[in-house]
Amino acid sequence: MPGSIDDLIPSAKQIRKEAALKETEKADQYARLAAAAEAEKQALIERLSRPSGKSEEEKIQLASTIIQRAVRNGLTEVQVYRFPNSLCTDNGRAINQQEAGWENTLMGIPKEIFELWREYLKPRGYRIGYQIIDYPGGIPGDIGITISWGD
Known about the structure:
This protein is an alpha+beta fold. Helices cover 50% and strands 13% of the residues.
């Protein structure tokens, strides 16, 4: 038999040590991925909390395109945006409770959409709705913005 038994079958202590090292490597990799995902999420929230930089004309054109596409598909409403509740100063509480003045809690792009609706779409008979659309862990999560025009 070539080599010794110790070369063929390592001790249980050595195997446990190797297994622990592998688990540590997996945990480190998971922590790095989780940190990267969190950093990406925070960067997205930061970007969305600032104005879009689009001109009024660009915003109106985008709204027109979205609405016309929905109409061609036979819809009377369309979700135009989805955003994390952290883009509200109260994390979506006022929207969830349907409190008067909820629109004052909006920041960034969600606020721009509301202002666009108020200025250009509302006078033309369109309605807007902001609603919590998921509840991860039982707490309010993302918020959807819907524009509607049906009866």
